[in-house]
Amino acid sequence: MNIRKAKPSEWDEIFLMGFSTWGDGLAKEDYLKECHESEKYQQGHWYVLEKESKPVSSLIIYENLFNLPEACFGIGSVATHEDQYRRGYASKLVKEISKKFKELDARGIFLFSDINPEFYRKLGFESITANQPYDDTTCMVLPFKSREHLLLKMPDYF
């Protein structure tokens, strides 16, 4: 297995990993069009975990956006091919990406979990509960250094 930046030619495949969760009743073609036109998606960097040279899990990384604290990153749109669920691919991808950014001297990684936050707690993330403005998601952080400076303000939803 290998983790690498995604190629633009893989974006449809990556976007469709999240279709069942974020498709909101759209036709696949409309969903893909929205994803390709998304400013948010265009501002991040997509990464994939590949198995046998094919992406099986993906996520996007944000930097210097959404009021993220200095030297912090945001992880979003963590998804896995439906036929590859429950094999640990998303966990491995999040762990390895977190390790990479810790080695680059990041202060921490934020994410908004719209699944059971226990998935991310097992990976070391902590819920931020104070002033939680979002009802259907949980803001979480994986601090690499002192946690206090990371909690001065919560990033915007991404």
From TrEMBL:
It holds the Pfam family Acetyltransf_9. PROSITE patterns: GNAT. InterPro entries: Acyl_CoA_acyltransferase, GNAT_dom, LAT. GO terms for molecular function: acyltransferase activity, transferring groups other than amino-acyl groups. Residues 1-145 form the N-acetyltransferase domain. SUPFAM superfamilies: Acyl-CoA N-acyltransferases (Nat). Coiled coil: none annotated. This is N-acetyltransferase domain-containing protein. The lineage of its organism: Bacteria, Pseudomonadati, Pseudomonadota, Gammaproteobacteria, Oceanospirillales.
